[in-house]
Design goal:
Distance between the termini of chain A: 59 Å
Number of strands of chain B: 0
Number of domains of chain A: 2
Low-confidence stretches of chain B: none
Radius of gyration of chain A: 20 Å
Helix content of chain A: over 70%
Number of strands of chain A: 0
Shape of chain B: extended
Distance between the termini of chain B: 32 Å
Largest sheet of chain B: none
Mean pLDDT of chain B: 91
Shape of chain A: globular
Structural class of chain A: mainly alpha
Radius of gyration of chain B: 20 Å
Strand content of chain B: under 5%
Oligomer: heterodimer
């Protein structure tokens, strides 16, 4: 038993353990996702997050210790975002053909995301200071956090809401858009990227490469639009609706 | 593979420097994506060269959100007593935004009669 304690002392200080477990947990999530016949509600991210949260709780490990290992995975989000330029370039002729539909979808989706989130929460009695953190949640995390801070929200709460939005989008997109019999992968992908940023985009890439490319464009453009309009629009909406 | 990652990192770094240097509201990686896209327009061969790496990276994009997701679990209590109302707003608004975006896309696409993909 003393030997185990010694091994644990090493493991709990080294990034290796939690880096490995992050990949293992995702592997389990992905295997379950495939075994289910790729059902959208068997979401690999959600499964991996749940498994790791349980592991942290059981081993009484603080998140900071976990992140020392997991940061190597987290770090790759930056290069992956840059990499979205490649499917954007590869789909350029298709992108050119739908510039106007994309702009319409961008403005409509972005404004509806913000206004409906604030309106629903306000109607259910959520106080105004929380609405400030809620408004930018459909944008990619760094933009949403920046907007939240600018308008007086809590970036920590916004981070939670951004992730929850992404997972919601990843889970509802396929059943919702199938139900409506929308077969245009450009429209599907773009809408998912606008409404649920990178996590929605990740899901889109699992379903269809064209949808993934358009989701990446939707995410990037909504980051730009949210950064530009949310600091002005969100406080006005909240004053109007709450 | 290492060369391809170097390309991505150089663009991310450049984006980060521009974002911070000019005080832009866009994150560095998004500016890096735009710069890489402009480069690919001028250098189509680069797209073909780095595609094997970018394809693998984007196929596993979900994995990269796991560490942030685990962080969220520890902060779920920040939702506080309004948790159920906030979750309703998150789910409801995400569905509405998706419907609004897909509807606007298809309506305008029909109006300008773009060829279907």
């Amino acid at each position: 038993m003393r030997e185990f304690a010694e091994i644990w002392t090493y493991l709990s200080r080294d990034p290796l353990l939690w880096l490995t477990l992050t990949l293992v947990a995702y592997g389990i999530g992905d295997a379950l996702f495939k075994a289910s016949g790729r059902r959208p509600y068997v979401n690999p991210v959600l499964i991996a997050v749940a498994l790791l949260a349980i592991a942290l709780r059981v081993s009484d490990t603080p998140y900071a210790t976990y992140f020392e290992g997991a940061q190597f995975v987290h770090f790759m989000l930056g290069p992956a975002t840059v990499a979205l330029a490649v499917p954007l370039y590869a789909n350029l002729p298709r992108v050119r053909a739908v510039v106007l539909p994309m702009l319409a979808a961008l403005v409509t989706g972005s404004v509806v995301a913000m206004a409906s989130a604030v309106a629903i929460a306000a109607a259910l009695g959520v106080p105004a200071d929380i609405l400030l953190s809620l408004a930018p949640k459909s944008a990619t995390a760094p933009v949403a956090l920046g907007v939240s801070e600018t308008i007086g929200g809590s970036p920590t709460l916004t981070a939670v809401l951004v992730i929850l939005t992404g997972i919601t989008g990843a889970i509802v997109a396929t059943p919702l858009l199938n139900l409506l019999r929308i077969r245009d992968w450009r429209a599907r992908g773009f809408a998912v990227g606008v409404a649920s940023h990178g996590i929605g985009t990740a899901r889109a890439f699992q379903v269809n490469e064209t949808a993934g490319a358009f989701a990446g464009i939707g995410m990037g453009l909504n980051a730009l639009l949210t950064a530009l309009i949310a600091p002005l629009l969100a406080p006005w909406l909240i004053a109007l609706l709450s | 593979m290492i060369g391809h990652l170097t390309v991505l990192l150089v663009y991310q770094l450049t984006g980060e420097v521009i974002s911070r240097g000019l005080g832009l509201p866009l994150p560095g990686p998004v500016i890096g994506m735009a710069l890489l896209f402009l480069t690919l327009l001028a250098l189509p061969r680069l797209a073909e060269a780095i595609m094997p790496t970018t394809r693998v990276l984007l196929a596993h994009l979900s994995l990269l959100f796991v560490p942030a997701g685990v962080g969220v679990v520890g902060h779920l209590d920040t939702l506080g007593t309004d948790g159920a109302a906030i979750l309703t707003a998150v789910v409801g608004s995400t569905i509405l935004a998706m419907l609004a975006a897909v509807g606007a896309f298809l309506l305008v696409a029909r109006a300008v009669r773009s060829p279907d993909a």
